[in-house]
Amino acid sequence: MNGLARKPIGEADLHAFADGFATAERRAEIIAFLESEPEVARRVADWCTQNEAIRRALGKAMAEPFPAALAATPSRVTCDAQEPLKAVVHASRHAPASDRIERTRQRRSAGLTSVVGAAILFGLATGWIGAHALAPWGAPPPRTMLRSGALDPVGTFAVRAIEAHETFASDPLYPVEISAQDKPRLGQWLAARLGADVIVPDLGRAGYSLLGGRLIATNLGPAVLLLFENGGGERLGLTFARTAPPDDRLLRYQGTATIGTVVWSDANHLFALSGPPDGARLAALARRVFPPPEQD
Amino acid sequence: MEVGLLSTVRSVSLRDAITPFVAGLRRYARALVMEPDACIAEDLVQQTVARALKDERLRRGGNVRLILYSTLTSLNRSRVRGASPARPPSSAAPFVAHSPETVSLSRIERSLLALPSDLREVVLLAALERMTYEEMADVIEVPTATMLARLSRARDELRVHFNGTIAQLSAARRPSQPRASGHLRLVK
User: Which of A27, A255, B48, B117 gives A260 a disulfide partner, CB atoms 3.0 to 4.6 angstroms apart?
Assistant: First the structure.
């Protein structure tokens, strides 16, 4: 390989290298170039890693060979399938994304009345209820819902709370760093880390006693996780961080198949109460943690 | 009579020509859409296939795969434009209830979510669909050089999100709150 006669390596070569399109000869030249350019080499190595990660995470092709609705005779396909499809497109063009999501959810799950009741009890704005509360509450989160759009800070916080609950509440021996027996120390330490008073709610009347607390890392900085347990060994986690209130200070539910969390805020904190994936029950418990915010 | 028969035969063979690509198309749609609701990607696929069955280019022997991907890509662009007219595509619906899979969303998926959809398109066509650069340029309907520039931008931006998660998180931390000496209160 003659170094002087080499064609300069361009962006296209680097992509071709990462994507496996470069010819063996060109490949050798690109490698020689990358050896002399560690910055570029890192960049291309990252591209290769991205490719791998994308294929691993998303590379599973869906099994069904042909969309069921279109597996009719061709003439029917072009006529019948168009109308509902147009309706969907029309809807998705003109409705806000949240409405679209709500509509498709409603298509799946009926019987949400109790859920609405719970939300209204909570004194929440109807716009939010319409857009976000309906499906998850009371009904188990549908498995077919795939993934979120961009996570907003509150959504990310809820995910952190769920992850923390999943990690710590399941530990039979050491779920907390400081146990409830040492309440003053627990309060002082958490308050010092949080930079504010730590409020420990009493869930005794709901049958839950405080196990203790720990500090967790969230997208909103350090947060306190307090764990409660009832006689049956069921654990609740109350996560809260000091933060400016989000734009909508209303209660939201997020959940997995095994853990749910309700998120709400007051003037200085964002709270997440995690436990069994039952939005209505968590909301009722959340009302014991703090009285519902007075809305309008 | 003869004409009718001929067009039926053509439609049937078109359907057969499309079928092998539907699985990949669906994979691309799901990765591209990244909405909590799988229905949206599925609708896109169905609409794409329905359109392709009527596509004149296909009847004239055009490249089935590229036409399918190109149709889906442009349908998705209209969808994104229509869904959030005031905002860039990357800052989609701010408040959605998240699904089981959200929680286990992989780092690469979170990073892809941060990309605007025109950048997501090229990354996915290359990595997931393993298209050549000429094919990709065809699909997104720009010259190859433009496509490559976009691919560079997409991959470099993805690097920031994918590699820089930790650095970004600490940088994005809010300013620390004033400290107060804490004490414990009981709230009934």
Answer: A255
Q: A45 — contact with chain B (CB < 8 Å)?
A: no
Give this complex's ipTM: 0.75
Would you state the structure tokens that stand for residue B186, as one six-digit string? 């009981």
Q: Which H or E run contains A265?
A: strand A260-265
Nearest to B28 by CA among B174, B153, B136: B136
Upper half-sphere CA count for residue A24 (Cβ side, 13 Å):
0
Measured in angstroms, the CA of B52 and the nearest CA of chain A are apart by 10
β-bridge mates for residue A208, sequence order: A230
Taking contacts as CB-CB distances below 8 angstroms, the residues of chain A near B156 are 43
Q: Are residues B74 and B150 in the same domain?
A: no
**Architecture, CATH, for domain A120-289:** 2-Layer Sandwich (3.30)
Q: Which residues make beta-bridge pairs with A213?
A: A178, A226
Lowest mean pLDDT among A19-23, A89-93, B26-30, B98-102: A89-93
Q: Is B163 on the interface with A (CB under 8 A)?
A: yes
Residue B112 included in any domain: yes
For residue B13, give the CATH number of its domain.
1.10.1740
- Whether A256 and B47 lie within 8 Å, measured CB to CB: no
Residues B20 and B44 in one domain: yes
pLDDT in tens, B58-87: 878 788 999 999 999 999 999 888 764 443
What letter represents residue A263's amino acid? V
Best A39, A76, A85, A148 residue to mutate vs chain B (most B CBs within 10 Å): A148
Kindly identify which residue of chain A lies nearest to residue B80, measuring between CA atoms. Answer: A93
pLDDT 10s digits, B7-63 = 444 555 777 788 888 889 989 998 998 876 667 888 888 889 888 888 888 878 788
Each domain of chain A, given as residue ranges in start order, spans: 11-58, 72-113, 120-289
**CB-based contact, B177 to chain A, within 8 Å:** yes
Q: Which residues of A touch B93 (CB under 8 A)?
A: 96-98, 101, 149
